[in-house]
Every structure is written in structure tokens, then in C-alpha cells.
Amino acid sequence: MVKNFILILFSLMLDCVSAAAQNDMTSYSGKVTDTAGKAVGNVTCKLLDGKDSLLAYALTKRDGTYRLKAVNGGRQIEFAFLGYETRRIPLKEGCNVYDARLERKAVELKNVTVTADPITRRKDTLLYNVDAFRQKQDRSIEDVLKRMPGIEVSNDGEISYQGKPINKVNIEGLDLMGAQYNQATQNMPAEAVAQVQIMERNQPIKALEGKVSNDRATLNLKLKRGYKARPFGEADGNIGGSPVTWDNRLTAININKKNQLLFTGMMNNCGISLESLTQGMNSYTGMYTTEPLPAPFMYSPTAQTPPISQLYYLKNKSYYTGLNYLHAFTQEKTLRMNVMYYHDSGLQQDSIFNSYTAKDDTVNVFENNNIHNRNDLVKGILRYEQNTKSVYLTDEASATLGLGDALNNGSSNIGILQEQVKRKQYDVQNILEATINTDAMLFDMSSIVRLYGSRERLGVTSGDEEMLTDYTARLRNLFTRNRIGTNFSLFGGSLGIGYIMEYKRNETTVSGVKDDMTGSYWLHTLEPKYEYNLPDGSLTLTLPVEYISYSYPMRGIKTHKVMFSPMLDIDYKLSTMASFDASVGIIRNADTRSVPFYGTMMNNYRTYTLGADSMSFSRTKTASIRLSWLNTATMLSWNVYAIWQQINQDRYFSYLYAGDLTLINPVWADNTHTSFSGVGNVKKIWRNARFTLKGSVSYSYNKALASQNGVEGYIRYNAANAQVGASWDKLNWLTANLTVAGNITWKRPDTFSSTDNVLKNAYCSLSLDFMPIKALRLYADAAGTTYEITHNQYSTNLFLNAGAKYDFNKTLSVTLTAINLLNRESYEISSYQGSNYTFLRVPLRGRTVMAGINLKF
């Protein structure tokens, strides 16, 4: 299968190379001015044949210059722009430069109604008309983005275009938010945005344009004229009773040519977590300067997250404040500041039953959790950026301080207990990136230096108040990754050569252990990368070679290893509507994320982990393919993605489950994990009928080694999901949205159990917006889930919400909302993880009614 897949790829590549060799790359150029000699931008330049048929076109830049691809059969170039006389210039043999001077003409506007197209295209840029997709109930621009063809938005706010994460979100061409762009998209009023621009295959670093390709898109928000160069925003206040609930927010925005400001303040106790606003989204420029923070050693058996809205189950108080300011010295030189504060405290409750199976030995563990938690986070970022054709330079300094406290007054099968986990962590880091473009060659460098520290304390007390445990772990982590590279043209493509030096040092201190628990490594990477430019895409071959040397003094280990990871990738635009990309490769990795320690680490009241005595390595064989389609005329978009992976590791974890403890032990032996997953999405909009239909299907297969209670064997488990959504807003006074989904999980009989462990569930939701008069909006939504708890035993959960909004004018509104009108008191769900079974029951918040006022300015 893989062999045939690779042959198909190479066949496609040879066809693309042949097409590129036959393509005539000569062009016509010139400058367009008016009669006063002033440059005219955005003039349409058309290459026409003898029958006035269009062969090629281009738009002039701000300075009036243009470049038009030469095509056989061309006879003349036409220059046209609103407010100017159209001019045609015949072509002359041997001449490639044609300047044009346009004369102004009067344009008479009659009483006509102009309706903007929902989507227009200018070369590789799609322009979405926001008002064509906006519905009455949309509050933020994120609500509208979810409805646009080709665009998907995840639950935490990350945006993808044609199945791939975008580079970034700009506002009026400037990057105000960086990786925290969801704070802007979730709070920017939908009515303030005129246009969403999607720049396909956009290279955000100007010095790399035409040198290094990029298969991602950049999203830019264009504001309406009345929202530029003046403050605007909105304030929301909601309060309810029995018990007292509240939900308040303030957004203030000011966007002009040289300064951008976005302030957000939010606070609520009605079950809305604001944590996603603190998490960075995927970023193109973070390829070499991103490194996850170390995972905490200690964790309470914290309340599980059920697959329902947080409005129903969270009992919290959540606060978030974000201040974002950007000053543009020029369009290419900016200074940005981002500051945020996040606080969350509350009570999380659940009842969990776990059944761990190993042949005839089954261990049942139950827990009742009542966790009072508190989390605080403060983060500041200061970033300078210069982004020109010749030089790209950015320096970003940041600091973060986090505090956490979780107190669980719960019980389990070992009795009543009190467990408390306290955590304090900080990190200070600096990221520097630079690229110099000399036309003939590129020189680039990047560097990240970070100091991280944490202190964790675990205390466990039994029911008779006798102290059982007071356990402390500290970690100091120093990390740096530095890269230098160059890039130059070679054989119709570009060859890049980079060298990366990475160093990490972990110093761990644990209560009662005096041994030196320091671990460190040096990682050197030579990264040759050849990119062949296809007519509408690229073919990339990467051949990185890594040399790692590492030492674990507590084990007396100091050794080294060489790793080679070839990767072949093709990215091709089949047409203006279709694109294709695929990759195959072998990736060898060292587990540089795990923190080494000596002996046994206590993770919570019942879980213990043994430290690894060496570094783990893996080899991954991978193959993926993606096909995307977007027809802006028929408003149809779809993308299909599939990936196969086989991961061979030299280590796995063995689990010992007993009534009073869980012991996790690393075992040095071969371990193979095979997986396959496929996802398909489609979205279709019928403009005249004002009807939208979207659907998705997915399937995943995993074969993984499991080891528990002395029994080992491979588990093969599957999951399939299908979802269909429909939206209709043909009538001015009625909008309807319907979603139906189903899911099934199963596995093959194995060493641990002789059953398929089949579980099914279904989900359905319906929302209606009704406007009996222009100023009044009534809305309601209902949702139902049915889960198979055990074989042929189901639990159904129904929820009903309703509300009303009355607009006194364009700036002032009052609202009334009711959540969980049926007063559902609990939620139940079950699932199999391998051969282990989990049942979860979560008490819900009950009915909540709030009245509010909304002020826009």
C-alpha cells in the first residue's frame, strides 16, 4: 500500500516538473499613471488576443507598477479602472515594457441597488463579504467565520482554512494579537467587520517571498469605515438569582493606521471557563522557537470534563483581563505589548467508577471528588518586529507566573481522604528571529532561551486527621535552541541548509531524596532542505541528521546517538478551486520532553511513577494525504485528510492496579503503535434559499500495546463519527439551526477481554431565532444526548435553553436568558479505554435565569 502510494506521488511530481519545464516564464511589465504623472494602484491589466479573449490579468501595485505573464497569442494589453478612460496598447515584437497614462472621466451614478458578492477572488486572495454570512444572533466575528465556506474554527478558537491552521490573524494588515488571536476573534463585534480576507499560500515573512513557499493562509480583518480611527466596543452585564449568578464583559477597541488597541475584561460565575484565552494558537513563525513547558509531576484525580456545555456543570468564578497594544512606526516596523491576567476558582464534582481488566484479575476503583480549585496566571509579552523585503527581524521577551491550588475533600474505595496539590511555576524567555535577503541568497537565524521553575507540594490526610503524606518536588529547567541557516537558488528550486544547536538541563529535587537528579542533553541537527518550485506548488525534500549526547548523573549514564529523518512533501494547487498535498517520511525522535528523576515520584494519593534510567528513542513511519476544494461561485467547500503512522519505541509503561494504589513502571522493550485516521468535511451554501448544509465523517484505528497487572498484549480499537448540520434564514423573522451526530466505538477481542466492547451514542440539537417585531428577538435551543452506559443500557440527557433580547436602539439592549430550563440535575457517560471501562456521573448546576443589559459604543 505504501509502495503504491509513493509511486503515485512520484508520478505526480514528474508530471508537475514536466509542466514547469514547458512553461514560458517571460512577462510584460510597466507603470500606470494619471495625466498628472501620479501612480494609479489597483488598475486591472488584461492581456487579450486578437478576438479580445482574456489570456492573463494582473493588478497594479500602489506605486502603479505591474507584471503580467506573457502568453502565446497575446495581441494587446487593456488597462481599466473606475473613474478613468479604458486604454488599450498593442504589443510590439521584442518589447516587454508598456507604460500607460490614464485620463479621468466622470462617472454618473443612478438610483440602483448594489449587492456585493459573498466571496470574490483577487489572485490568491479571497474576500469574504461579512454581511452576506452574518445572522441576527451573531455577536462576534468568530460566529460568522464558522459559517464561511473553507473556514473552520475549533472549540478553543483556532482557525483553519481548507483543513490547515492559518499563519495568523491581522487586523487592518497588522498583527496585534500574535498567538492569542482568539481573544480578538471572540470579542470583535461582527457588525464592525466589513470583510474577511484570506490570503492563500501567504508567506508572512516578506524576506522569504518567492524564496521559501508556505502552504498556509493568513487571515486579515477589514473594518467598516465607521469603525476606523475611533474607539468602539461593547459592555455586557447579566445577573440572576437563586443562587446569585453573573456574567459581565467589556471590550474596547481602537484601530487606526499607526496604533491599535484591544482591551477585554470578563468575569462570570455561570460556568464559562476563560482558560482558552491564555493558550496560544498555532503559528507559522514559531516553527523553531516553540517548546512545550514541562508537564507537572503531581495531579489530583481532578474532575473529568464531560462532553457538554460548561454552562451546565461548572461551578466557578472566572476572571480574565487582556490589554493589547501595537504601535506601527511604519507598515513594516511595529512594537507590540500583550498583557493578560487570568483567575479561576470553583468547585468541581463527579463520581467515577473505573474497572481495570487483566484476564481473570479485575480491579474496581471508585472515587467521589469534591475539588475546590484555584488557578492564577499573569503573562506579559513585549515584541518588536521589522518585516521588509530585505530584512526580517523580531525580538519577543515574555514572562509568566502561575499559581495553582486544588483541595479535594473526597472519598474512594480506600476510605475518606483529603488531598491537596499546590503548584507555583514561572518562566522567562526571549525569542529572536532574523532573516536577511540579498536576492542571491538568504541568511536566517532564530534563538529561544527560557528559564522555567516549578514547586509542587502534595498533602494527603486520612479521615481520622492523621497526616499521611507531605511530599514536595521542585524543578529547574534551562532550555535553549539556536539555529542558523542559508538558502539559495539551485536547479529551478531553492536549497536551504540549517544548523540547530539545542540544549536542555533539568534539575529535580524530591522530598527525602538526596541523590543528584540532574539530566541534560545536547542536540545538534544538520538540516538540508531542497524545495523545487512547481507552477502552482512545491516539492520539498528534507534530510535532517541529528546527533544527541545526553547524561543522567544519578544513573552514571552518558551516551550519544545519531538519527536520520528523511521527509518528502508535495503541495500542489490543482486549480483555483482544488489543492492537494501529501507527505511520506521516516522520523527518528528522542524523548527530550520527559524530565528524568531518580526513584519513585508520588503523583497523587494513589498513583506512583518510577523514574526512567535513560533516554527513550522512537522511529515513526508516516504517510498523509489531503485534498481540498473551494468553489466560491457555487459556495461549496470540502476537504479530505488521511494519515497513517507506525511508531516503534524502545520503551513502554507497565501499569499495576491495586485497590489502594496505581504503579507506573517504564519497561525497556520494543513497543509498536500503529494508527490510521481519516476525516472528511463538506460545507454547501444555497444563497437564494439562504440554506447551509455541512457535514463531516471520521474514522480512526489504533493498535497499541497494553501492559497491566502482569498481562501484556496488543489492543485494536476503532472509533467512527458522523455529523450533519443545517442552517436556514430565508425569512427575516426566523432562523433555524439543526445538528445531528452519531458515534460508535469498538475493539477486537484480545488478551484482556473476549468482547468487542461496542458503545454507541447520539447527539441532536435544534435552535430557533424568532423576531415577531424588528426590535425583539426570541430564541430557544434544545439539545439531547444518548449514551450507551453498558451493553443495551442507555442514559439520555435533555437540555432546553431560552432567551429574549429587545433593542431600544442601535446602542442599548436588554436581555433575559434561562439555562437548563428542564432543571437537569446530573449527567452520565461511559467509555472504554482499551479494555478498561470508565463510568462518569457529574452533578449539574441546575436552572439559571439571568437578566442583562448590553451597551454598544
Structure summary:
This protein is mainly beta and 857 residues long. 4% of the residues lie in helices and 61% in strands. A hairpin with a 2-residue loop joins β43 and β44.
What's the helix and strand layout?
Blueprint: H1 2-22, E1 27-34, E2 44-48, E3 54-59, E4 65-69, E5 76-80, E6 87-90, E7 100-102, E8 119-122, E9 125-129, H2 130-133, H3 141-145, E10 151-153, E11 159-161, E12 164-165, E13 169-171, H4 182-185, E14 193-199, E15 218-223, E16 232-240, E17 245-255, E18 259-268, H5 310-313, E19 315-328, E20 333-358, E21 361-387, E22 391-412, E23 415-437, E24 441-462, E25 467-490, E26 493-510, E27 518-534, E28 537-542, E29 545-552, E30 557-564, E31 567-573, E32 578-590, E33 600-602, E34 607-610, E35 617-631, E36 636-649, E37 652-657, E38 662-667, E39 671-686, E40 691-708, E41 711-728, E42 734-747, E43 759-773, E44 776-790, E45 793-807, E46 812-819, E47 826-833, E48 836-843, E49 848-856
